[in-house]
Write a structure and sequence with these properties.
By secondary structure, this protein is α+β, with helices and mostly antiparallel strands. The protein is built from 16 helices and 15 strands. Helices cover 39% and strands 22% of the residues. The mean pLDDT is 86.
Length: 435
């Protein structure tokens, strides 16, 4: 009786197992029929959508170079290194025994942590049970390729099989300025905006020359191959142009240091220096420094070199040039009576900060005399104030400088009428006010 009872139990179990296999097989067959016959149209539609989808290939941005070919802005790939503590053949015992050596090596070449801190960072995931350890524990980020190769030479990390040491790496392109803050505002920066997720120039030369530096995007599409679906380049991306500027690195260094010394001596809030080669008009150096709000030093600040300001006395040079070209004055030694004030056209009297009874034409520029400059210009333009504006326009003084730096302000001098108000405005414009 006992043997007969066991046989019934065994047959019952076989029946249950057979039923389970039957139901699973039925489900598999139904899913197969559904996928290949019933819902074949829907799946084919999804496959076609995936295969017809085009992805954008980002172009390599061009470099900005100094006049001697030195790199002012370029793309460099930086790496983030991670460890998978749950990879299949992770050599935990060997990793534990090498922790002290790895920590010392990391502290030597990556001193963002001490050896003790590195050891704590490296050992932190080992405290957890193996099933709860991270699959992508960040070891270090933003390191160069050379630093990554050095890291892979450390004990344990030198194991070539990533399934044994868990090492994985991901790279990301970054825009870098090898010379640091040197001319940084003029060179400009890049980044994504709320309107556009692509990386374009957002300031300085990077923005002004973006259409050349950016290049042209390419297109890739999905192509089914024997071993799977891969990305196939349909239209290759075109790299951006490398652009050579007129900046001279040695001159730039001298200008920045000299400007810093002058600002420190004067305790100024900010200052700008632009060095131009007179024969060609090429800008050889440009520096914008302002006081560091968090310290007593000066840092690269707003690019005021291309912003709009009332120019002041520098316009006197232009006015004197016109006076000589138009024959208003014919001798630099001609004496002009100046005095302490000059009432003109019923407006407020024009004054000088250091008045003298008289000046020669040459001394008007040397002493930057408002009165002397006005008396020279009104000789010709008193009856035609608008003529002075026309001459400024004629010589190109009102045209943009075309520095190539984004944010450049176009010079503005208003045309004035031939009346009393125009005469008063003329008397101010000729020495740099009201512009």
């Amino acid at each position: 009786m006992k043997k007969k009872s066991n046989k019934k139990h065994i047959l019952y179990r076989y029946g249950v197992i057979t039923a389970i296999i039957f139901f699973v097989a039925t489900g598999v067959i139904y899913k197969l029929v559904d996928t290949t016959v019933i819902s074949a149209g829907e799946w084919n539609k999804k496959a076609n959508e995936e295969l017809s989808r085009n992805d954008t290939i980002m172009p390599v941005r061009g470099n900005i170079l100094a006049s001697d070919g030195s790199v002012l802005a370029a793309n460099l790939r930086y790496y983030t290194v991670r460890i998978d503590f749950r990879c299949e053949r992770f050599m935990e015992e060997k990793y534990r025994s090498a922790l002290d050596t790895i920590a010392d090596s990391m502290a030597c070449y990556f001193p963002i942590r001490t050896a003790a801190q590195w050891k704590k960072h490296l050992a932190a995931p080992l405290v957890k049970p193996k099933a709860e350890r991270p699959r992508a524990y960040r070891l270090i980020d933003n390191i160069s390729y050379a630093d990554y190769r050095r890291l892979r030479s450390f004990p344990f990390f030198s194991i070539k099989n990533r399934n044994r040491n868990g090492i994985s790496v991901e790279g990301k392109m970054r825009r870098v300025n090898p010379y640091g803050d040197m001319a940084r505002r003029s060179i400009g920066g890049v980044g994504a905006t709320a309107e556009c997720k692509e990386v374009h120039g957002i300031s300085g030369l990077e923005k002004a020359l973006d259409t050349l530096l950016y290049g042209k995007t390419g297109l890739s599409k999905k192509v089914p191959l024997t071993k799977g679906i891969v990305n196939w380049t349909d239209i290759p991306a075109v790299p951006g142009y490398n652009i050579t500027t007129t900046i001279d690195i040695k001159m730039q260094d001298i200008v920045e240091n000299e400007l810093n010394d002058v600002l420190t001596y004067c305790n100024a809030d900010w200052g700008v220096a632009v060095l131009m080669e007179v024969a060609t008009g090429d800008i050889k150096a440009i520096s914008n420094l302002e006081k560091n709000p968090n310290g007593n030093n000066y840092i690269e600040g707003m690019n005021r070199a291309v912003l709009g300001f009332e120019p002041g006395s520098v316009v006197k040079t232009i006015s004197m040039m016109l006076a000589l070209e138009d024959g208003i004055v014919n001798s630099l030694d001609e004496v002009i009576s100046t005095g302490s004030r000059f009432p003109y056209a019923g407006g407020n009297s024009i004054t000088d900060s250091h008045p003298v009874p008289s000046l020669t034409v040459k001394e008007v520029i040397e002493r930057s005399s408002n009165i002397g400059m006005t008396k020279v210009i009104v000789r010709k333009y008193d009856s035609n104030p608008g003529g002075f504006y026309s001459r400024l326009k004629e010589i190109g003084f009102l045209e943009p400088m075309h520095t190539g730096i984004a944010g450049e302000t176009v010079p503005r001098v208003d045309s004035v009428p031939n009346n009393r108000g125009g005469r008063i405005a003329l008397s101010r414009q000729c020495y740099g006010y009201a512009t």
